[in-house]
Amino acid sequence: MRTRTIRRVSQIVFFGLFLVLICVTAYPLKPGIPVDLFVKLDPLAALASMLAARTFIAAMWPALVVIGITILLGRVFCGWVCPLGTTLDASDKLFFRGKRRGTAQLRGLKYYILVGLLVSALFSTQAVYLLDPLSLLTRTVVLVFIAPIQMAFRWLAEMFYGLSSGGLGPIASVGTWLSDRVGAWQFVSGPQLYFRQALLVLAVFVAIVGLNSLTRRFWCRNLCPLGALLGLLSYVPILKRVVSDECTDCARCTNDCKMAAIHEDPRLTRTTECIECFNCAPICPTDAVSFRFRPKPELHPETRLDLPRRRVLQGAAVGLGLAAMVKIDPARKRALGGTSSVKLSSPELIRPPGAVEEDDFVARCVRCGECMKVCPTNGLQPALHEAGIEGFWTPILVPRIGCCTQECNACGEVCPTDAVRPFKIEEKKHIFIATAVIERDQCIAWNSNRTCLVCDEYCSYKAIEWKMVEGTKRPFVNEKACVGCGICESACPIQPVAAIRVYSFGDKRHMTREEQKSWAGE
Fold it and tell me: Is the pLDDT at 394 greater than 80, yes or no?
């Protein structure tokens, strides 16, 4: 019982840490806080990103810690750390306690999914984000839950502020104290967050939780590709389940095992499925079950992982087909630019500053949503059609929602896979992500001969120039100065479509930063 309590405390602590790190992923970032820690701990995200990008990503080194622990102790990450596993355990107690559920097992399916995802990564197609639990849960919290939580905190801050101004004694003091501190958070005082496609992301999450109605931890047992990878790594751990001769074949442990890791014969253990939760030990009426380090082979009989070769090949074929479907996507039309190619799938495909070239970007990005959460203007949004199938849910800048502010470099600081590389604030004037274009038929300075200086006044890079045309001053965009931050489009008073639009053809990612600086004439 004591070990089970320690495990539950561990789950709560790590889940709390997971939520805290997401909450503090806000501009300005506090130095020294590893806000992207959980994604960096993910061996599957690390492996898939490296395979797809065909390079070693040094930033993902924390995944080696999880790999080492798994090889030694087994799938303890799934039972003691994984926040999605904790979420499923909690939802099981909240929504499905006492419900009679089936025992159908598809445990081999997650291994075939893993094979398919890794094969697609070998062909430079990043698809792990669809089913990787850490990327999936981080994305869900950011895109679905952060905005309503922020709204609730705003309501509380306003309520306590009203109480404090009304002079209600102790309540007023508490209200003042709370509003001063909550109001100081960018989380509350910044713009109200909004993320596109939140309902779609929520639907995926609800489906995963709903699968618990079939069996406990259905996702972990049958679908989780990270669990499959950790299962393969834990093939011969030093910590193993041991059943003594006192076992009476009551099968209580078999029926209670949330991962179905215990065979119908309770003496047999499926080692690759065991998450070391220790639930089986305290419920044994004869104390026949224990966990020991390096026990003698006869004390821990186990069933070996059996994956039919045909099924493995079918999984690989699905992964290959997925890669082929992505590569023939019509949105992958290209135009040569420098020594590489630039995707021209949409004029609205505006990547964050510091983003690597498009092919490398979609290969590295695990769609965790960290950069979208930290963006102070809420301008970074998940892509839908702008980047084609291959770039689904990757971050793009939507200037009409929010611009890329001149003093912010947070997106490069929080990206766990270096899809957005760190950069200094002073470098931003030489990082060209797009170009602004004045829509003359919309602009009142052009079509109405009226004075409008909004885009000029707001431009952080002094890219708006005025020239005499037919005796009247007209605004023009200096492409050498415009980096495509989108502040002009964001501020433009013309509704619903701005009179100055930012388009992706100004993207200069195929150039090095020194080359971009030289192109700008500096």
Answer: yes
Q: Which amino acid is at 318?
A: V
DSSP secondary structure of 97-154: TT--------TTHHHHHHHHHHHHHHTT---GGGT-HHHHHHHHIIIIIHHHHHHHHH
* pTM (2 d.p.): 0.89
**CB–CB of 451/445 below 8 Å?**
yes
Q: CB neighbours of 419 closer than 8 A, spacing ≥ 6?
A: 355, 356, 360, 361, 364, 365
Query: What is the per-residue pLDDT for 267?
Result: 87
Per-residue three-class SS string for 294-315: CCCHHHCCECCCCCCHHHHHHH
Q: Please, what are the domains in the chain?
A: 2-137+202-235 (no CATH), 330-519 (3.30.70.20)
pLDDT in tens, 455-465: 999 999 999 99
Q: Find the length of the chain.
A: 522
The two tokens of residue 475 are 């605004």
Residue 493 and residue 89: Cα distance in Å, rounded? 50
pLDDT confidence tier of residue 236, bands split at 50, 70 and 90: confident
Strand extents, DSSP E, 348-397 = 380-382, 395-397
Our CA angle for 482, 486, 492, nearest 5°, is 110
Question: What tokens does 404 get?
Answer: 């890329």
Residues in contact with 194: Cβ distance below 8 Å, sequence separation at least 6, in sequence order: 147, 378, 401
3-state per-residue secondary structure call for 229-257: HHHHHCCCCCEEEEECCCCCCCCHHHHHC
Task: Give tens-digit pLDDT for 348-389.
Answer: 899 999 999 988 999 999 999 999 999 999 999 999 888 888
Higher pLDDT, 99 or 195: 195
Q: How many CB atoms lie within 10 A of CB 83?
A: 21
Burial 348-370 (b: 16+ CB within 10 A, else e): bbbbbbbbbbbbbbbbbbbbbbb
Average pLDDT value for residue range 276-281: 89
